[in-house]
Amino acid sequence: MQPVYLDYNATTPLDREVIAAMQPFLSGVYGNPSSAHTFGFEARKAVEDARVKVAGLMSCRPEEVVFTSGGTESNNYAIKGIAKGFKSKGRHIITSAIEHPATLEACRYLESEGYDISYIPVDRTGIILLSELEKTIRKDTILITVMHANNEIGTIQPLWEISRIAKKHNIPFHADAAQSAGKIPVNVKELGVDMLSLAGHKFYGPKGIGALYVRDGLKLDKLIHGADHESNRRAGTENVLLIAGFGKACEVAERDLDRNSIAMLEMRDALFMQISKEIPGVVRNGDPENCLPNTLSISFPGVEANLLLAAMPEIAGSAGAACHAEHTEISHVIRAIGLEEEVAMGTIRLSTGKMTSREEIDEAARQIISSAKSLVFSESMVTPTDGPDEDIRLTRFTQGLGCACKMSPQDLEAVLKNLPVPDHENILVDSRHSDDATIWKVDSETAWVQSVDFFTPIVDNPFSFGRIAAANALSDIYAMGAEPLFALNIVAFPTHRLPLDVLHQILAGAQSIADEAGIFITGGHTIEDSELKYGMVVNGRIHPEKILRNSEAKPGDAIVLTKPIGTGILATALKRMSLQSNWLDPLLDTMMQLNKLPVELFSEFQVHALTDVTGFGLLGHLLEMARSSRVSARVFAQEVPVLDGVYESIKAGMVPGGSRQNLDYINEHARWGADITDDKKIILSDAQTSGGLLISLPVNLADKFLDRLIKAGFHHAAIIGEIGSKTDSELIID
Fold first, then answer.
1. How far apart are CA 509 and CA 457, in angstroms?
2. Is 60 a catalytic residue?
3. Per-residue pLDDT, 266
4. Separation of alpha carbons 300 and 254, rounded Å
5. Which CA distances in Å does 85 have to 68, 93, 192, 219, 592?
6. What is the pLDDT of residue 359?
7. For residue 512, which of 570, 461, 585 has the smallest C-alpha distance?
8. Has residue 117 got a pLDDT over 50?
9. CATH number of 79's domain
10. Is residue 400 classed as helix, strand or coil in its secondary structure?
């Protein structure tokens, strides 16, 4: 069975008629529509023909249509155009609490410019509260902007009633119809709007093209300045190719509206009927009567939406709107309709299209039902299996990845600051030190070192995951300069979702690392959980006077890093199936490499301070070292080793949320050089899993130590900075 696409609210495929309409402008017609010759006239005719078709869809005059780059520009043009053009009359704008970011962000920008924005609440179905809207109108209100239909829950707003209120008070009224066009009528006269936004890719047209209807006589300030294109309303040479496709998409949408709406409605209702029959507790969101015919927003209480979507990779759906696909928090729309947290976290959006078949609906329902049941703890629903499955990809069964799952430094500080700290003469290292392990003094010759670390899969192969998790857990012991002795396994395993052989492979991988480290795994603890997690409690020993802390860095020291960074970014690319094959082995090799050998060299060198680089990223752990040592640290950004593929993956948007959180925290404590790019900032803050050691040692020993590291197999080790006296900035990156 081919993957089933149920994310038509995010985007749609090009209609065949649209492709045919665009074809001449790919190979033959290339003139500038503004040129006064045959080639230009031909292009201009294509633009104006398309304008007529767009006007037909909205039942307006062609001269009232302004071509834009899409729905976002259309919304910005309408909102900012009125705000700037009408500012002499007032600075108050009204919108709803559930608008698309293209509207909300434009309004927030205007707030920063001194405008006052009112966000009107909605009821449980997502319908705007008309009484609140009218009460909010003031003498200085210059615009009401409300979407026609919501992109997440599908609720259709009563635009005609809103228009009556707007006209009563002589206020321009704009509606965002990006999600409704092609599904329900968008007749501007019947809706009573003064401006209406369209986006071509939402109804089988090309991406990068849209339109704004502007009622004749309504004057907007220009958003884009230049030549007098689009009747001096939107500068820039018209994209004839996209406009031709957009015009055809509008023509087809108007012609086939009734047929397509019925087809989408039938498929959506069939999907919900099957799901609700098998999972009676499922909650449907939005207004079932006033809803887009293709949109189904449903919530599974007690289930996390991202886990549900990960469990059914052959179904293309969305946890909230596509614009928020990377976020795990509850969307502003779901919050606005007042869903309880337990219900809201399990919300997914499924949207049918005119091409959706009954076979696709049946297959989607089967997979959704199976996956949702597997995430609810009921042995009667599913039966665990014992055998291996060659197609299992562990990262599909998780929300986060490896150490990128760590709580943010800000949240962790807030939680720990009011908890009591134990006080005992035998406690040598504890949570007060932001160090890698806790140490208990046994006697004058021996101290006991203990650490715990576990996380969700960062790679797909179970054996490799076990090796990486074990190497990562052992690293905390090495990061104290200690000798590990034995470990206990920590396992949270979804027996109802994964074959037991997967757990066997994970533990076998961990055992192979334990053998390399020369330690024993003596037991452990397991629980059932909806999300796979594995790690270790590791115990070791050290002489009390040989402990290497992160708090003894000295001004003048060199800073050495033993491994390249970028594992969080590349692991995100792996999860999203965007990692190039030649980047995978180096990624695995660096995460599986034990930090044992560098520690064995310490007896020959005077190491002042030590930590390892994991979830808080290189700069996060270096900040802990600088703060604990009461010094500053300077990083030579160009000297930091980076794994192959990291820059390319950032450009493709493969950045884990944990890395962004790290950067937000680092920004409060760092001074960045003028030539440090945003990409470099993300890399230096990237949440690492089983990262290298960060070592502070006398500068005169650094080159010799680095040479020994490279000969020992740490080929990417580098001197990446220096320790300085304490300054206003704890970190300086240049």
1. 13
2. no
3. 98
4. 36
5. 19, 13, 21, 7, 61
6. 97
7. 461
8. yes
9. 3.40.640.10
10. coil
Q: How far apart are CA 244 and CA 164, in angstroms?
A: 35
pLDDT band at 694 (very low <50, low <70, confident <90, very high): very high
Q: Mark which of 333, 354, 374 sits at the end of a domain.
A: 374
Residue type, 582: N
- In whole numbers, what is the pLDDT of the chain averaged over residues? 92
Degrees to nearest 5, angle at CA 156 with 150 and 158: 125
DSSP 241-258: HHHHHHHHHHHHHHHTHH
Query: Active site residue: 250, 291, 323, 405, which one?
Result: 323
Mean per-residue pLDDT for 528-556? 94
Q: Is the pLDDT of residue 29 over 60?
A: yes
| pLDDT attached to residue 384 | 43
290 shares a domain with 213: no
Q: What is the pLDDT, as a whole number, of residue 399?
A: 63
Q: Show the domain range for 319.
A: 259-374
- Together in a domain, 410 and 361: no
User: What average pLDDT does range 552-566 have in this prediction?
Assistant: 97
Q: Is residue 487 part of a domain?
A: yes
* Stretch 528-532: mean pLDDT: 88
Question: Following CA atoms 635, 637, 640, 645 in sequence, which dihedral angle do they give, to the nearest 10 degrees?
Answer: 150
With 0-12 / 13-18 / 19 or more C-beta atoms within 10 angstroms meaning exposed / middle / buried, residue 623 is buried
Residues 322 and 417 reside in one and the same domain: no
Closest by alpha carbon to 367, among 49, 51, 2, 17? Answer: 2
- Is 138 a domain residue? yes
Q: Which tokens is 689 given?
A: 């899993």
Place of tokens 């005609």: 160
Q: What is the CATH number of the domain that holds 317?
A: 3.90.1150.10
Contact 116, 92 (CB under 8 A): yes
> 341 and 218, same structural domain?
no
**How many domains does the chain divide into?**
3
Q: What is the mean pLDDT of residues 662-691?
A: 95
Instruction: Confirm whether 391 is domain-assigned.
Output: no
Question: Which residue in 22, 123, 25, 11 sits closest to 71, CA to CA?
Answer: 11
Provide the pairing of β-strand 92-96 with 520-528: unpaired
Would 7 be classed as within a structural domain?
no
Beta bridge partners of 567: none
Q: Widest CA span of the chain, in angstroms?
A: 95
Q: Which residue do the tokens 């562990």 mark? A: 394
pLDDT band of residue 323 (cuts 50, 70, 90) is very low
Angle ∠(140,141,146) on CA atoms, nearest 5: 170
Strands 520-528 and 483-493: parallel
Q: Are residues 541 and 609 in the same domain?
A: yes
- Taking Cα atoms as reference points, which of 607, 641, 604 lies closest to residue 723? 607
Q: Which two tokens stand for residue 631?
A: 């010094």
Amino acid letter, 67: F
Check the CA dihedral 159-164-166-167 and report its sign: positive
Q: Which two tokens stand for residue 100?
A: 């698309």
Contact indicator for 141, 93 with CB cutoff of 8 Å: yes
CB contact at 8 A, 650 and 530: no
Same domain, 342 and 416: no
- Two tokens at 482? 């200690």
Domain boundary among 230, 255, 280: 255
Beta-strand pair 609-612/693-698: antiparallel
Encoding tokens for residue 336?
Answer: 């606005």
- Give the CA count within 13 Å in the CB-facing half-sphere of 467: 19
Same domain, residue pair 238 and 270: no
Closest residue by Cα to residue 610 from 429, 444, 458, 413? 429
Query: Are the CB atoms for 408 and 325 separated by under 8 Å?
Result: no
The pTM of this model reads 0.75
Looking at the fold, whether 105 and 195 belong to one and the same domain comes out as: yes
d(CA 320, CA 349): 6
